[in-house]
Amino acid sequence: MREYRFFIVAGEHSGDVLGGKLMAELNRRLRGRVRYLGVGGEAMEREGLISQFPLHEVAVMGPLSILPRLPRIVKRVYGTVRAGIAAEPDAVIIIDSPEFTHPVAKRIRRARPSIPIIDYVSPSVWAWRPGRARKMRHYIDHVLALLPFEVEAHHRLGGPPCTYTGHPLSERLEWIAALDPKDLAVKFALDENRPVLVVLPGSRVNEVTRLIGPFSDAVRILTETVPGLQVVLPVVPSVRPLIEKAVSQWPCRVHFIEGDDDKFRAFRLADAALAASGTVTLELGICGTPAVVAYMVDQVMLKFRFMLKVPSIVLANLVAGENIYPELLQENCTGEKLAAAVLPLLSDTPERTRQCVGLGKVLERVRVADDTPSERAADIILQLAGSGRQVR
User: Fold this and answer.
1) Nearest CA to 169 among 363, 388, 380?
2) Cα–Cα dist 199/272, whole Å
3) CA 384/CA 119 separation, integer angstroms
4) More confident residue, 377 or 76
5) Model confidence at 387: pLDDT above 60
6) Residue 356 has pLDDT above 70, yes or no
7) What contacts 368, CB < 8 A, 6 or more positions away?
8) Handedness of CA 347, 343, 322, 179 (dihedral sign)
């Protein structure tokens, strides 16, 4: 009998969810012959992780969010490194959040160069700071990519070996297709003869704070322009109070929904969406929902936008290989421009038809046959981890 020991480090909620699925697959295969240490949240702890500290202490994004908490984050980096070295794991697995996980990986590699280190979720080297890819070769043995174009990007940029495992959404395609959008229409008494707009101002406080003003202005204009417009707003609990305060001034009734089931029903029911840039654009894409995408960053990040090396910041566009969703960024993110871009998507127009045709590419390229992403990731991790440890 052999036992594996893995040190797994996530830096935010999405990484915790991904780590939880990976650990569930490792548990299924190893049947108790595995131990976990590292950093994670509820999903990873349910699968057996002993976390070094609560995940929320390092779950921050963007320079202005990180700076006030930098001393604590630095302390947590060094504490995590010490724990990773002391654990003597068969492999270290870092999951997304490169601002936190990569400093951990670098220091573990320097101290214990023989421990394999796997990066689950590639940093956006294809979008900005492409030189990171080559530097990663010094401390990452393998990258597990969620997006199909990332394998070519790492090869072109001189990055570590990289395998496309598939996006987690690929595991849910059949489930999404089976959801009946009419259930949501009945639940909220929505009129099938009136257009439905899904509004998605983000899931983080800083995103919502920057976007809710322009989104509010756009909804006011659209409500005046499109009589009977019905608005549905998926929301997560952490930002619901902030959004509710702003929405209370909107000139239309807003139907708040929580949970993935109703969220995907809303996407399939909607005539169009107004969305913050992020993973949600991929979710809208696989549902075939026409959309307009917007985003605004803080003043520090704004100074670095010249470093972007991609034709779009929208994931659905990058996966499709063409700019299907229009994106209105920074100074272009105004209520008037957003409303003007959304308006033709609410009826049968050439703009709407073009998007619907193009979105078929998103679904096609996200779909991966046979194994799930977690199964493919587990295959590579177990290969790199070797034969495990003798149970004594």
Assistant:
1) 363
2) 9
3) 12
4) 377
5) no
6) yes
7) 164, 166, 170
8) negative
Q: Which residues pair with 234 in a beta bridge?
A: 257
One-letter amino acid at 256 equals F
**Average pLDDT estimate for 257-281:** 95
Distance of alpha carbon 275 from alpha carbon 86, whole angstroms:
44
Q: Find residue 230's DSSP bridge partners.
A: 196
Cβ-contact 239, 203 below 8 angstroms? yes
Contacts of 249 (CB under 8 A, 6+ apart): 216
Pairing of strands 230-234, 291-295: unpaired
Give the bridge partners for 231, in sequence order.
197, 254
Q: How many Cβ atoms from other residues are within 10 Å of residue 52's Cβ? A: 19
Question: What are the angstrom distances between the C-alpha of 234 and each of 88, 175, 259, 312?
Answer: 43, 18, 8, 24
Q: What is the pLDDT of residues 85-100, one digit of tens each?
A: 999 999 999 998 898 9
d(CA 284, CA 89): 39
Q: What is the pLDDT of residues 149-192, one digit of tens each?
A: 899 999 999 999 999 999 988 888 889 999 999 999 999 999 98
Across the chain, the runs of DSSP E, i.e. the strands, are 2-10, 34-39, 49-51, 91-95, 117-120, 142-145, 162-164, 196-200, 230-234, 254-257, 272-276, 291-295, 327-329, 389-390
Q: Which amino acid does the sequence have at 97? A: S
Per the listing, tokens 């803080």 go with 298
Q: Is 246 helix (H, G, I), strand (E, B) or coil?
A: helix
Bridge partners for 257 per DSSP = 234
Nearest to 144 by CA among 387, 386, 371: 371
3-state secondary structure 344-363: HHHCCCHHHHHHHHHHHHHH
Other Cβ atoms closer than 10 A to 68: 9
Read off the pTM.
Answer: 0.81
Residues composing the chain: 392
Tokens coding 366: 């996200």
Phi-psi region of 97 (alpha: psi -120 to 50; beta: other; left: phi over 0): left
